[in-house]
Amino acid sequence: ADLLPIPGPRGVPVLGNTFQVPADGPSAYFANLAREYPEGVFRLELAGRQVIFVHDPDLVAEVCDESRFYKPIDPPLSHVRDFGGDGLFTARSDEPAWGQAHRILMPAFSQRSMKAYFPQMLEVAQQLVCKWQDRQGADLRVAEDMTRLTLDTISLTGFGHRFNSFDAEELHPFLQAMGNALVEAMMRMRQLPFVTSMRRGQDRAYRDDIQTMQNLVDEVIRERRAEGRTGGSDLLGLMLDAADPTTGDRLSDENIRNQVLTFLIAGHETTSGLLSFALYLLLRNPHVLAQAYAEVDRLLPGDSVPTYETVMKLEVIPRILDETLRLWSPIPSIGLTAYEDTVLGGRYPVAKGQKISVLLAPLHTHPGAWERPDEFDIDRWLPQRKADHHPHAYKPFGNGERACIGRQFALTEARLAIALVLQKFALSDPHSYRMHVKQTLTIKPEGFTVRVRERRPHE
Ligand code: HEM
């Protein structure tokens, strides 16, 4: 077949399509644009660089072939690297630090480790429930409280550090600094470098925010060292103690600092988004909510306290989470780059080094791979139906060796939190929330509130 140019909207000289992309919601803009390109691929010129967007599942299968494409550290991740450094998320795959940390930390994410973290996950989830018990009838800000839950959970289980976020009305200074830094990293993606260097005030604020985050991380590491307890099987214990099974090397102090910061960020933003979107979807789908209540009442009758084993027996709630991640993937896209000049779909030429972005929402709702794609249908995730899914039409946790290391952690934490909330509360949404997505590196439903009331027996 003949080669075809990749289609795309016309831009203006130098700036290309940069200013067609709204600063506060690039992912919604890209998703809308994807609908105009049924061939499943289009290109844009952004801040002087061409980016190819892909959402057709067969083309996604090609770009997920790790012998042809790799994860690049370019905008926005190259900006996130200003604070994540060579931590797992923002390390290049060919940097020794990536492989070493990956091998050292894998055991901390095994099923056995999830079981070991469970008591601490439960403790934090119970703090959420206590807060909501005290605030019955009030408007509860869902994304904020889920962020308290997930940040406190990763820091307690991973590093033995207590944020005690539920004790404070304001979000922790670490969270404020992180939010600002992520917004700035996104802004920089749209700027030509000379513009970035002219924005001196923003640059100073950005550096201060990074400093705030690093100070907290140094404090967390200092606490552990002061306890004289370097070993242990949590993330920090492994990093301070364990050697890479392949090279025998240990992680440098600088790298440990980058990993702790990386995990504090990667370990909570996304899971908080997942939990917030899940409650949103449950309130809009009462028949699914009823199924979830039935499951919780069967496995967690009365005031019984969940164990790790109970959470592993849940079956409806995991399908709710799978389907939530399909419709509202907290990470809107993943980036890939071609090792060599290549051709996509037998007809679209792609140059070596070309940046490709896989758009997850359009992929997850692609009509070629999903029936009634916009419908919230948890039965898609019944074991017998899962086998029929297109193998590359669902990537909420990314791809290949650079896929999410925290997947089981996130799902265990989220199953437990939803189960506890439903065991205790009847939920309502008296303001009939209309979805408003806030995007930093991840997306969340901004301004979403619910009200809760303790359930009475047989309700
Ligand atoms: C990587 C999604 C929770 C730690 C990723 C990637 C995605 C993702 C899409 C790949 C990014 C890329 O290709 O650039 C999610 C979602 C989560 C979640 C949707 C929750 C629902 C977590 C948690 C942790 C975590 C709880 C830690 C406890 C990481 C790390 C990486 C990563 C360290 C980088 C892995 C590497 O490249 O070696 N995640 N994540 N994530 N995630 Fe998650």
UniProtKB/TrEMBL annotation:
It comes from the Bacteria. Heme binds at residue 404. The keyword Chloroplast does not apply. GO terms for molecular function: aromatase activity; flavin adenine dinucleotide binding; FMN binding; heme binding; iron ion binding; NADPH-hemoprotein reductase activity. GO terms for cellular component: cytosol. Keywords: Electron transport, FAD, Flavoprotein, FMN, Heme, Iron, Metal-binding, Monooxygenase, NADP, Oxidoreductase, Transport. Coiled coil: none annotated. In the N-terminal section; belongs to the cytochrome P450 family. This is Bifunctional cytochrome P450/NADPH--P450 reductase. It comes from Actinopolymorpha rutila.
